[in-house]
Amino acid sequence: MDLQFNTKLFDNYNSTSQKIRVATEDWVNQSIYCPNCGNVNITEQPNNRPVSDFVCADCKEEYELKSKKDALGLKIVDGAYDTMIGRLQSANNPNFFFLNYDTHTYSVKNFLVIPKHFFTPSIVEKRKPLSPTARRAGWVGCNILLHNIPNSGKIHYVQNGHVVPKKEVVSNWTSTLFLRKIQDIPSKGWLLDVMKCIERIKKTDFTLDEVYEFEKELKLLHPNNNHIKDKIRQQLQLLRDIEYLDFTKRGSYSLTRKDY
Predict the structure, then answer these.
(1) Rounded mean pLDDT of the chain?
(2) pTM of the predicted model, to two decimals?
């Protein structure tokens, strides 16, 4: 995979933003395969397509591209808040490609995909309305909170300038597809919150008591639930059933994939 942009495309544009938009879209079109089926037929959507930028010609998975020159950080600026919240429950909600590039070398530093089944309201932050003097006065945008997404939902093609093998990318994607079976958003939110707690323990082998230490945080996220520990045990059971983790002995668990 060539990480360099085709800078010859710059000749037809004057503004930096136009050059970057064209170069990043061209790079994705030329370099990226579909993580869902592995096929290389990722093509650009028509410019007036309201939801996604790219679609796989084979499995029809759709992708929206977000590019940023700085490090991806904790959040990514997105569009209208109400539109994003509405898309979370729609059938045409796309997956997200995130591209981080170097402005000196015009090359890709990081490129990852976040599957749409990791998107819940808890990862969408509402921004302040635009001021009354702004051209779109009162418009409310949103941010995508990357730090609220479990690491298993951040699937890298390129990480710090290093290309991840295709087999690993497709495998990482496939291992998350169990989330698509969960249609109820609050239920999915609970499962993802517990997955994030497990990641924060930073051990492949952990105990139930270690997960219980996040009880207060989970209560803040789910204030209407008065049985947090019961809910934690339920989510651990679900994660065991879909082979995200193993039950090793009473009150003890182990992650099935050690790179989470």
Answers:
(1) 88
(2) 0.84
| Residue 36 amino acid letter | N
pLDDT at 46: 63
Residue from 58, 40, 47 nearest 25 by CA: 47
Q: Please report the domains of the chain, with CATH numbers, ordered by start residue.
A: 7-181 (3.40.210.30), 185-255 (1.10.10.10)
Q: Which of 192, 51, 63, 178 is nearest to 116 (CA)?
A: 63
Give the residues across from 246 on adjacent strands.
254
Q: Dihedral of CA 240/37/32/97: which sign? A: negative
Looking at residue 22, its amino acid is V
The residue type found at 236 is L
- CA neighbor of 163 nearest in space, from 110, 113, 96: 110
Q: Per-10-residue mean pLDDT for the chain, 260 residues long? A: 93 88 92 92 67 83 89 83 80 85 93 91 88 90 89 94 96 90 84 92 93 94 92 93 88 77
